[in-house]
Amino acid sequence: MAACVAVGFKPYSALRILSFYSSLPRARPLCFQPLFRRISPSSPARTCFCSLVSGGEKTKPEIAENWRSESVGDFRKKLRIADIKGGPDEGLERLGQTLVVKGWVRTVRVQSSVTFIDVNDGSCLSNMQCVMGSDADGYDQVESGSVTTGASIWVQGIVVKSQGSKQKVELKVNKIVVVGKSDPSFPIQKKRVSKEFLRTKAHLRPRTNTFGAVARVRNALAYATHKFFQENGFVWISSPIITASDCEGAGEQFCVTTLMQSSGEVDSLVDCIPKTKDGLIDWSQDFFGKPAFLTVSGQLNAETYATALSDVYTFGPTFRAENSNTSRHLAEFWMIEPELAFADLNDDMACATAYLQYVVKYVLENCKEDMDFFNTWIEKGIIDRLSDVAQKEFVQLTYTNAIELLLKSKKKFEFPVKWGCDLQSEHERYITEEAFNGCPVIIRDYPKEIKAFYMRQNDDGKTVAAMDVLVPRVTSSLLISIFIIFNSEFSAVHMFIH
């Protein structure tokens, strides 16, 4: 068999063929029958031939000879209001600089000689006050009523010292451009609106102070989560959202199916579900050929990866079909599930403590303005309680010691206390808020009957190596957003020795 001969088909493709005859000339041109026709404006019915050329002859495609490419510009971070006002001097170091601010109008106050426009770009809670005189370029847009609450604008001006008391700097406008007008009926005005009303305006509620602050804090928590685990040698695992397994074994899952597709000929989607001869659902006709669900946990995937990669963690959405309308039960939330190889319960508790203190410190340091807003308008004292989590040493006690502590308190609880009972919120709050004066508490070694089947059993045969972190006032709304939306499933400990 002769060597492989490289041939080029111009102008559209390349082909490599094996020659079975050594007598075939390597550079001899061959003609092939037309492979296809190309329709072009100059020759509507012109036939395109592909001819064989020598492998050493390289010709550029016809399009490349007449094409002049323009390079893509460099990506640059936008200058945001947080960059201007977020420094230690709150913008005073930028006095005299000409800057451009792009954002959405919060309020407009038109006076006889000057107009005040508050602009927010979402980077921080603070607005940039723009002071505009009638001589500024684009002032006619203010006079025509185009600059209203909700409008998106482009503003250029000089940073000057503010004469007001609410901010240290403001922007003296020399040019304004309305990028997008706002409808006169724009519903998010300066006055405070209820959360019930905002539920009906889901596309606009991120522009409010509360939802904007929550989004920034949540972003900081997510970033700090990845930062903590990456700095400590963990590998992030992307676990599937649709799964056929029930990780928790509770059966409270949302089903994912393509069987309920209406053809327009039936009154109910339920009538579309195919059945077997026994009257059961015929899952073989479903998309996956078996029952499938939204995941309740990525733990099973993390366990398999931990046996190969050592320390891993999952961080993604999970779903629970628990029909319980309380602040501690969410249908959808993001959960963090670390898996530590070659570790015991002490390593598990150390990891949980370090993680919680790390992310809380990060939020307090990097979201100060938003946390001050929460402390003033949402829940007073939240900063002090989070500071306790970040600074105080976590108390550790066994489940048995916790039960003894509750029994000795002589306090009357709604749910009776006895060994083997599942601790309720009132029990946890007494332990953290009263017994240990606001310190976070870790309770370990729970009875095996009230914990999941996969918990490692202790030598006493009655308890398992599981632990829960209790935080003071965990039932409060803001702490729920931090410690349940970013729930940490540290209760299972696995010692991998493979």
Automatic annotation (TrEMBL):
Keywords: Aminoacyl-tRNA synthetase, ATP-binding, Ligase, Nucleotide-binding, Protein biosynthesis. Pfam families: tRNA-synt_2 (PF00152), tRNA_anti-codon (PF01336). It comes from the Eukaryota. It catalyses: tRNA(Asn) + L-asparagine + ATP = L-asparaginyl-tRNA(Asn) + AMP + diphosphate + H(+). Residues 216-471 form the Aminoacyl-transfer RNA synthetases class-II family profile domain. Its EC number is 6.1.1.22. GO terms for cellular component: mitochondrion. GO terms for molecular function: asparagine-tRNA ligase activity; ATP binding; nucleic acid binding. The keyword Lipid biosynthesis does not apply. GO terms for biological process: asparaginyl-tRNA aminoacylation. NCBIfam families: asnS (TIGR00457), PRK03932.1 (NF003037). Belongs to the class-II aminoacyl-tRNA synthetase family. This is asparagine--tRNA ligase. The gene is LOC115716018.
